[in-house]
Amino acid sequence: MGPEKGAGVSEPSVRELPSNGTIQVRWRHRVLSCNNAFTAEGDSLAELFPDEAAPHRVLCVMDEGLAAAQPDLPASINTWIDRHASRLSAAGTVLVLPGGEGAKNDRTVFDQTVRAIHDRRICRQSFVLAVGGGAMLDAVGLAASTAHRGVRLIRLPSTTLGQADAGVGVKNGINAFGAKNLIGTFAPPWAVVNDAELLPTLTDRDWRAGLSESLKVALLKSPDLLDDVEQSVKALMARDLKTMERIVTRTADLHVAHIVQGGDPFEIQRARPLDFGHWSAHRLEQMTGFRLSHGDAVAIGLLIDLQYAALSLGGSSSLVSRVTDCLASLGFPLTSDAMGDEDRLLEGIERFREHLGGILAITMVTEIGTSSEVSSIDLDQMRQAIRMVRGRCEKRQTRAG
Ligand SMILES: NC(=O)c1ccc[n+]([C@@H]2O[C@H](COP(=O)([O-])OP(=O)(O)OC[C@H]3O[C@@H](n4cnc5c(N)ncnc54)[C@H](O)[C@@H]3O)[C@@H](O)[C@H]2O)c1
Ligand SMILES: [Zn+2]
């Protein structure tokens, strides 16, 4: 027989151990901007590598597209590391790995980075220095955040989208089973360095790509940035580096401020304002086998959700026209054949709902700086919005042709 209990009082069967408590971890999120990082102008960047435990081993991983466009860069990085020999020692030659979405679509870049971390004896006091586009940074970042349960990562994004958004946050990831970023981590990097001098060799498509993320964050948070992009169209189309640097820096700052001050750096809550326009963008990228770039897909995604907000939520239709004009004048294509397959595109909403954990929260912008989360979407109105975005763009093309 068991011990007798007091009348009517039973001990709870689930109990916390007395040791339970809150774990607090402090991260410093450092994002710097500079010009010509790997020349004497970037010498003070060596201070990012602490005196303690120096010299640190540094494994440099570079995007193949960048290395092809700027063939002297690997040697400049080696020379820079050698010049700071009291703090740094190169862990072998620069490892050049494929860039572009292919870097995330299989495990090659991830595996080769983990292998190099292992073979070149990168430890938890060492650094991975990743230089490249957002896709390569996502895959290399995943490797750095998981090998040895996490080694220090410094990112140098080399695309506008990387410097404005992808490279300055705390997320890494690769695609799997047909889903974007299915395998990933939240892991703040040791530092991010935005060097504008990496940008001039981008193709036109990748030059404009970051500007759709600029408009995204401007619509959410900064009327001034929207004005600035609009007034800078001519300079941006003429590939003026100073103008691009100013806009990218402002965009990065707004993203980083959201991560650092927004109260949810690891996206535990449902609301994801920075994913504005992204449910359809991610879906369109996938539907086109990634022929549509992330930047171009985000431009379309913003217009679809702005148009939906104008149809269903009392949003401003003049804002839809204004953003359409701005994106078109920056050279964004603003349409894709994949938009014709509305059923498949709309499945993106369901995928996003599942990803969030069953309850939908899609950010909608009704006026510049005014956004709200919606928990349901009227699919007929969304179809209408998709058709309107597509139709408007085709009309423009006919007029231009
Ligand atoms: N982690 C995040 O928080 C986050 C946020 C937004 C986007 N992303 C991801 O970022 C990726 C898109 O990144 P992206 O727009 O930088 O494109 P990308 O990484 O695909 O790069 C585009 C092309 O430019 C080449 N390249 C890179 N730098 C170059 C340079 N300076 N000169 C010439 N060519 C160069 C690359 O080799 C590639 O072919 C997507 O996978 C997207 O999901 C991640
Ligand atoms: Zn994006």
Main traits of this protein?
2 domains, seven-stranded parallel beta sheet, binds nicotinamide-adenine-dinucleotide, Rossmann fold, 15% strand, Dehydroquinate synthase-like, alpha domain, globular, binds zinc ion, two-stranded antiparallel ribbon, 15 helices, alpha/beta
Secondary structure elements and their pairing?
Elements: E1 31-34, E2 56-63, H1 64-69, H2 73-83, E3 88-90, E4 95-97, H3 102-105, H4 108-119, E5 127-132, H5 134-146, E6 152-157, H6 160-166, E7 171-176, E8 179-186, E9 191-195, H7 204-221, H8 223-231, H9 233-237, H10 241-261, H11 278-287, H12 294-312, H13 317-329, H14 342-356, E10 362-367, E11 370-374, H15 379-400
Parallel strand pairs: 1-9, 2-3, 2-4, 2-5, 5-6, 6-9
Antiparallel strand pairs: 7-8, 10-11
Helix pairs in contact: 4-5, 5-6, 6-7, 6-10, 7-8, 7-10, 7-12, 11-12, 11-14, 12-13, 12-15
The structure holds nicotinamide-adenine-dinucleotide and zinc ion.
Account of the protein in words:
It contains 15 helices and eleven strands. It is of the alpha/beta class and about 400 residues long. It has two domains: about 30-200, Rossmann fold (3-Layer(aba) Sandwich); about 205-250 and about 270-400, Dehydroquinate synthase-like - alpha domain (Dehydroquinate synthase-like, alpha domain, Up-down Bundle), CATH 1.20.1090. α7 (about 205-220) runs parallel beside α12 and α12 (about 295-310) runs antiparallel to α13. It is globular, with a radius of gyration of 23 Å. Bound molecules: nicotinamide-adenine-dinucleotide (NAD) and zinc ion.
